Amino acid sequence: MLRRRLNRLLGGDERRVDSRTIYVGHQPSPTEAFIPPKFCDNRIVSSKYTVWNFLPKNLFEQFRRIANFYFLIIFLVQVIVDTPTSPVTSGLPLFFVITVTAIKQGYEDWLRHKADNEVNKNLVTVLEDGHRMRKESEKIKVGDVVEVDEDETFPCDLILLQSTRDDDTCFVTTASLDGESNHKTHYTVPETEKDLESLNATIECEQPQPDLYKFVGRMYIYKNDPEPAIRSLGPENLLLKGATLKNTQKICGVAVYTGMETKMALNYQGKSQKRSAVEKSINAFLLVYLCILVSKALVCTTLKYVWQSKPGQDEPWYNQKTQREKDTNLYLKMFTDFLSFMVLFNFIIPVSMYVTVEMQKFLGSFFITWDRDFFDPEIQEGALVNTSDLNEELGQVEYVFTDKTGTLTQNNMEFIECCIDGFQYKYRDADTELDGFSVTDGPLSKMHEKAGKEREELFLRALCLCHTVQVKEPTGLCQDQQNNLMDSLEGLMVDGGPPPQEQRGFIASSPDEVALVKGAMRYGFTFLGLESKKMKIKNRNNDIEMYELLHVLNFDPVRRRMSVIVQTKSGDKLLFCKGADSSIFPRVRQEEVEKIRVHVERNATEGYRTLCVAYKKLSINEYASADEGLQAARLALQDREEKLMAVYNQVETGMTLIGATAVEDRLQEEAAETMEALQGAGIKVWVLTGDKMETAKSTCYACRLFQRGTELLELTVRTLEDGVRKREERLHELLLEYHKKAVQDAPPIKPSVSRGWSRANQDYGFIIDGASLSLVFNSLESNSSRYKNLFLQICQNCTTVLCCRMAPLQKAQIVKMVKNSKGSPITLSIGDGANDVSMILEAHVGIGIKGKEGRQAVRNSDYAIPKLKHLKKLLLGHGHLYYVRIAHLVQYFFYKNLCFILPQFLYQFFCGYSQQPLYDAAYLTMYNICFTSMPILAYSLLEQHICVELLLDNATLYRGIAKNAMLRWVPFLYWTVLGVFHGLLFFFGVRYLFGNPALQDNGQVFGNWSYGTIVFTVLVFTVTLKLALDTRHWTWINHFVIWGSLAFYVFFSFFWGGIIWPFLKQQRLYFVFANMLSSVSAWLVIILLILLSLLPDILLVVLRKPCGPHSRQRKAGESGAGGSQSPRSSARPLLMRTFSDESNTVA
């Protein structure tokens, strides 16, 4: 005993690695000394910074961006070295960008701190020494006994010890954990003390792990006996943090996992900084321009010293060196000159580009918020933008990962029809008689026939008895409270149904169970509830029938069925079973199968969820054997599930098939159309859900993700079950088989062809469940990467992938696997519950839906929309336009700055490499801030190269910009060559003019500042008019900023050069601009050079045959308007429609 205590104290107990021991109520066990174990507290931390580490951590993260680090170095060089330009030109913009970003990120983290405090400071009731104490949630310790009232959420993971319900159960909803808003039943630990104060017990359980559906433990209850009573603990005893108590007044439980060790916290994916693909492209282009910059500085520095090595050039008679200059080290002087050239040419990469990009993203995000199409009248809200940094990523999505419950569906099951003995029954009115008819499935002679009355009633009794539904009487509730009951707690007032005093609500672990019970109500059989193991139903004759519930054989994904064993008044033991057709058909008489199969297959192809119903009358011996087997299996501490499964399979044989049901899970509005549009755009859709496979599969059919011709490849626990081989061997075999079928034998698919145009090829759909995925990810190290690669290749060759029974962290693992695969595809996750937060944070873009399951997904998302249908416009409309706009902005910025600095570089060859600026300091500072910034900002906010309506009608246009098409090296090279061509033309065109320097009538000679001013004037007009030529969609704002910028340049030049400024030591441009414009030759060369620069663009627009999206746009416009052509949908020369399109506004 002493040795064991020492081992525990020193952490040497090997079992502590895999398990933890918890003292209920911190009461020591009588058999050993009490050593308080150390566990983490109950604080939840989702914030990124603290007060102490905010400044260093934030600065470190910001200066990891190559641009910020570059401008910091330039600023330091300007401070230390005597450079041609002032440090303010680099330091002020850098300070502005760093400060604004820090404020933005600090505010976002403050909101996270605020949300954490709301949870951590929430008051909860803890039982201490027989007294109820109110304390903050963060102060709960492992071992505390916590009391939770109805509609409260559990503050930590608890083992249920006591419930106010007579049957020692409680109901919870786990919508914030697994997305299911249905009520789940949990059970107290059997035979515990009613008075918790006198309870002396310890719990031994596994260490924290993220799987929501697994929990293994045992409870030692110490009474007067020398040996403690042992009770096994499973997931049915564990209440998870974040779940909500329902339909139970009060429960008490002992804390087993707290704080960041709870299953909810372990499934929470930390929030990381998301960067768009455009930013990565900017960094790549930046490196190229940095190389150009360094090359220019090296060339000029080298040529300067080569030129100065000639006699008389180093120290001319008119510019003698000082003694200090003569004493300076040659290599230090060369390095200083190199840095000076770097600063002189530094404007090739202006910080203003990053400011403009940030402004474009921030202001552009308002167009999503203001879009009236995103407004939902039901919740009176529109779209929400939490992160404006990722607008352009919406136009690059290749994979969409969507939740099912609450995202694709409304989680609202409706009974559609049933089939009894091969006869189809559809509900048409509220008569107490069944209204049955066979439409197309049976022979003509059976058109209006019905099954026998005895058979009908047996089927309806099966629907009323074979379930785990509970009835809640909504007494004592006001009208508002009744109206606000959750979806799974539905009032059952139907036409011709029970009178108001008999209205009831149904609570079930699955919404389809409620639908089936309500379906039986329509035909006269009403389930009245379960009292003391007695199930009561009211038949057509309004007689009450009583059945004793003996056993429930729970549903599981391997069996895919559930059963109940009941005893009638006469003492007969009946087994009623319902489940998937593939699970029921092999267990019934085969002659009964065919007449039901045709109905089931038809309903399945229509997207309904089908269940088959069977029954069996148990003999005395059969029941005695089943009862004994079930009792023994439920008390087993090891292999409990396997032993239960063996008994279930033994008793569920030789049944009689009665009929089948069809239930519809209503889809979200326009869900199928949205999924079809996304697939038409070349986006692959994966459904990740915590729901059962059958429900999820029928939803995929209803959403048209699975088509009739789709061959489904299934990798689930059911397909891995093989009596002979191990699961891992079977997994390996199936992966190889599916890989051969979907990858090796599949014909290559052209990237431009989607499923809709390639029906000749076989479509594959892939289905996997959480348990099989764990096997793929967590198999032996030698096989793990191989299995992952095979799995990923199979999935990437399937049109749709369905992952069911997923834990939240598994959803994130799937997203991460695809995100990190070859080609780094852009991923998007969309969901509405807290169970989706991990995958929303993991994906490049996270979308939250403002659904009924709380706002955790919305708070953690990058964008939030009211309904799934809005995703279509968000991606195909806004996303497409955002990407095109910002891609043009980035390329244009590099182009216009290359045009700007190349003449400055060329000028050094004609001024003795003296670092003499070509342009005045005012022009250097104002070029990117004032003269050319507003037109490109307006363009990047308002441009519509194709109108939104056509983008939505033609989903294939989305593919034209896929895989960062507009920011690849070929377009970048085109813009760079264009910038070099214009820069050469500007400099040498003006130099040719200056071949005769006497450009005025009086013979006065122009100087170097006039030379630079003419080059600068041509530059400003050319780059601005180039943007005007590229503009497809003109608004009054475009006109105002383009022509206004040019007018402002002219006004500023006159104003700056027309006044003697007292704060300037030297005024280089005094009357230079006015004097320049007095020369006809200067006017002529300015106009000629602008026309020559833009001539290729003008000719390209005028002469080229319309092609690509613009021609399709025109055709669509003509066909859609009966031949009438709108200005925006034409591809006529852009210059000619500059003013005619002014009336067009942003859609």
Describe this structure in words.
The protein is α+β, with helices and mostly antiparallel strands. Helix content is about 45%, strand content about 15%. Strands 14-34-33-32-15-28-31-30-29 form a 9-stranded mixed beta sheet, sandwiched between helices. A 9-stranded antiparallel beta sheet has the order 17-16-27-26-25-24-23-22-21, with helices on both faces. It has a 6-stranded antiparallel beta sheet with strand order 3-2-4-13-5-11, with no helix packed on it. Residues about 1-15, about 430-450, about 475-505, about 750-760 and about 1105-1145 have low confidence and may be disordered.
Class from secondary-structure proportions: alpha+beta
Bin the helical content.
40-55%
Largest sheet: 9 strands, mixed
Any idea what the radius of gyration is?
37 Å
What is the first-to-last residue Cα distance? 78 Å
Overall outline = elongated
Quaternary state of the chains? single chain
The count of strands amounts to 34
Question: Briefly, what is this?
Answer:
The chain has 1147 residues and is α+β, with helices and mostly antiparallel strands.
Task: Quickly list its features.
1147 residues; alpha+beta; 9-stranded mixed sheet; 36 helices; disordered C terminus
Can you lay out the helices and strands and say which pair or pack?
Elements: H1 2-9, E1 19-23, H2 54-63, H3 66-80, H4 88-120, E2 123-128, E3 131-136, E4 145-149, E5 157-163, E6 169-173, H5 175-178, E7 183-187, E8 201-206, E9 217-221, E10 229-233, E11 238-239, E12 244-246, E13 250-257, H6 263-266, H7 277-308, H8 323-327, H9 330-345, H10 352-370, E14 384-385, E15 399-402, E16 409-420, E17 423-426, H11 453-465, E18 470-472, H12 479-483, E19 490-491, E20 505-507, H13 511-522, E21 526-531, E22 534-538, E23 544-553, E24 561-567, E25 573-579, H14 581-584, H15 593-605, E26 609-618, H16 620-635, H17 640-651, E27 656-667, H18 671-680, E28 684-688, H19 693-702, E29 711-715, H20 717-720, H21 727-744, E30 764-769, H22 770-777, H23 781-796, E31 800-804, H24 808-819, E32 827-831, H25 837-842, E33 845-849, H26 856-860, E34 863-865, H27 870-907, H28 921-931, H29 933-942, H30 948-953, H31 969-993, H32 1008-1030, H33 1036-1058, H34 1072-1077, H35 1080-1103, H36 1109-1120
Parallel strand pairs: 15-28, 15-32, 28-31, 29-30, 30-31, 32-33, 33-34
Antiparallel strand pairs: 1-8, 2-3, 2-4, 4-13, 5-11, 5-13, 6-7, 6-12, 8-9, 9-10, 14-34, 16-17, 16-27, 18-20, 19-20, 21-22, 22-23, 23-24, 24-25, 25-26, 26-27
Helix pairs in contact: 2-4, 3-4, 7-9, 7-27, 10-27, 10-29, 11-13, 16-17, 18-27, 21-23, 27-29, 27-31, 27-32, 29-33, 31-32, 31-35, 32-33, 32-35
